[in-house]
What we know:
The chain has 662 residues and is an alpha/beta fold. Among the domains are: 1-116 and 124-172, Spore Coat Polysaccharide Biosynthesis Protein SpsA, Chain A, CATH 3.90.550; 184-319, Serine Threonine Protein Phosphatase 5, Tetratricopeptide repeat (Alpha Horseshoe), CATH 1.25.40; 580-662, Serine Threonine Protein Phosphatase 5, Tetratricopeptide repeat. It contains 32 helices and 8 strands. It has helices at residues 18-25, 43-49, 63-73, 92-100, 150-156, 177-183, 185-199, 204-216, 220-231, 241-254, 258-271, 276-288, 292-304, 321-333, 337-350, 355-365, 371-381, 387-399, 403-416, 421-433, 437-444, 454-467, 471-483, 488-501, 514-529, 533-541, 552-561, 565-578, 582-594, 598-611, 617-640, 645-661; strands at residues 5-11, 31-36, 53-56, 78-81, 86-88, 107-118, 121-134, 162-176. It has an 8-stranded mixed β-sheet with strand order 3-2-1-4-7-6-8-5, with helices on both faces. α10 packs antiparallel against α11 (258-271). GO terms for molecular function: transferase activity. Keywords: TPR repeat, Transferase.
Amino acid sequence: MAEKISLCMIVKNEGQDLRRCLNSVQNIVHEIIVVDTGSTDSTSDIARQYGAILHHFLWNDNFSDARNASLELAQGDWILFLDADEELSPDSREILIRLIENETIEGYFVKIMNHLGKEGWIETVPDLVFRLFRNKKEYRFRGAIHEQIADVILEKNSEARFQVAEDLMIIHHGYLDNVIKEKDKKHRNLSLIEKELELKPNNRLLQFHYGVELFRAERYTEAAAVLIQSATDIDPNTIYLPKLLRYIVIAQQSSGQLNEALNSAALGLRLFPDYADLYYYTGLILLDLKHYSQARNAFLQALSMPEQPPQYASFGGVRGFRAYYYLAQIAESFLDEEEALKYYLYSLRDNARFTHALERLVGILKPTKEPDYTKECLEKVCDFCTPEANRLMGDIYYQHGAYGLALYYFDQAEDESPVLPDIKLKKAICLIQELRFFEALRLLTDFTQESPNYPLATLNRLFCFWIQNNPQKVRTLWKELHALGLAQDTDNVISLFLAYDAKHAPSPQMVLGSEGIFLLLDIIQRLVALQEIERAMYFLHALQPKCLIKYNLKIAQIFVNYSEENRAIPFLQTVIENDPLAEAHFQLAEIHSHLGRFSEAEQHYKHALHLDPDTPRSYVRLINLYTAWRQSILKEALAKYPENDVFKKLAEEGASNHERTD
C-alpha cells in the first residue's frame, strides 16, 4: 500500500502567503493539518478552501507545543512540515514519492532556498533543514523556538538513519525585508530565545540561534561573544558548524574586530578547506585592512572553490559575481582600469542583475565626457533587450548626470511598455537637458495636483522657462509652488530663480539644511551640464560659505565631470583649507596633471600619499607623472639641442623602455 504524507503547519495571519504554500502541495500530500494560533485575517477561510483540517490553538510562546498539536491530528505515514511563507519547488511530487518509499530511512534533511533582501534585488541563500520524517507517536518537537525534532528521533530510536533529500527543495520567502519588518520577527525571536536560554543556558543549538538573532538585530559584539561560546569544544561533525563559523567571522568583522575575524576564518578553513564563504569574507576583511595583494588571493581562492554542500548555506555569488566585484575594486585602487573593467564584466556575466558592478563600470567609462564611447562599449557586452534593462540603464546614466544617454534608454523602454510616473519625470528632465523644451513641457503638464510628483514636475516647468528667459512664466509657477506649502528650504531655493530674473545679485546670506542643499546641487549639476556656468555660480554664491563646507568636494566633482576643471580648483582648495583630505589633494593633483602643471600635481599627490599612505593610487599617479614629466623635459632639451648625443641617447632609452612596458 502506498505511503501517505501529512502536511503539518502552524499559522497566524498568513492570508497573504498561505495560498501560495498550499498550491505548491496540491495533489502531493494526502492531508493538510493547519493549527491556527490566533489569526484575525482570511487565513482560516483559505485553509478550509484547500480542505485542511483546521485546529485552533491558544498561543503560549512555544512553537513546539503548537507543532505537536498538529502532529496529534496527523494520520499519514510521513510528516512534512512547512511554514506559510514557504513553498515546495514545482518538481517535488515525483521526488517525494521516491523518498518515502525508502524503508531504511527515518527522516530527511531538505534543501531550503532562502530569499532575502527587498523588491528589485533579492538574494538566495541555501541551507539544510529537517522537514520530512516518519509519523510516530514518540516523535515530538522540543524547544520553545527553533524547535527541533531530529535529535528527539535519535534519542527515541538510536538506529534511526537520516539522509539528505537530493533534488527536493523548499523555497522560503520569510527573510525578505518587508516580511521581517511587518512581522517584527527579530524582536519576537530574541524574546522567545532569551526565555528558553534561561531554562537551558548551556544548550549549544539555542546559543547558536540566539547569536544569529543578535546578529540580525545588528548587535554584533554580543552576537560574536554568544556564537564563540556556542562553538567552544563543539563536535566538529555538528551539521550547523560551518554556518556557525561563518557567523562568528561576520559578527566579528561587523563589530570592528578585524584581526579576530581573520583568525576565526583561518580556523574555519582548517576544518572546512573548501568553504568559499570563509575565503570571501577573508578577502573583505583584508580589503578593509588595505592588504590588497592578500585580499586578491583570497577572492581568487573563493572563485576556485567547488560547488558548496547545502549545510554550508553558502551566500549567493561568493564563488562568482561578488568575488569578481571586489577584484575589480582592488584593480581600481591601483588605477588599473582595464583589469577593473574585465572583472566588472565577469561579475555582470555571472549575475546580470548585480547593478553595483554596472554602476561602477559606467563610472570608469566617464559617460558625461565620452557618451558615445560609453554607449558603444556597454552595448558590445550587455544585452538591453527588455524594458526593465533599458529602464535600469536609463536610471544609471541619469544618476551619473549623462542625460542624453539616459533619455535614449528611457525612450527604448517606453517603446515596449507603459511609462511609469517616475520615469516620465526623469525623461522630461533629460529632455530639458537636451534643450527639447516643448516635448519636456508636454510631459510635465501631464502631472495633476493629485500626483505625488506634481511639485517636482512644476519645479521643472519653472526651470524650463527660466532657462528660456521667460520671467513671467517663472513668476506664475513660483506662486503656484509657493501656494503648495513647500518646506522652507525648498521654498528658499526656488526663490533664487525669481531673484535672478529680477537681476538682483544675491548676497551670500542664505542658509540651507541638507534637503535644500541636495536640491541646490541637483540644479547646479544640471546647469553645468548645460554649460550655463554663470547661472550655476549664481546659485552657489547665494549661500553662506559655511553651508557648503561639507559639499565642496561634491561641487568640485560636478565641474570635473563636465570638463570644467578650472572651476573645480577653488572648491578643492577650500576643502584643503578647512580639513586637509587625501581625496581633495588627489583630485587637485589630477586636475593639475591633466592641465600639464606637473610641479603642482606632484605636490598634491605627495600630500595625498602622506594623508593616506595605504592607498596605492597616488604611487601609481606619481610614477606616471614622473614619466610624463621626463618626456616633456627631454622634448624641450632636444628642441634646444637637437644634435646632442646625450639627449638622443636618453630619448632612445625612453622609447625602448616604453616598448618593453607595452
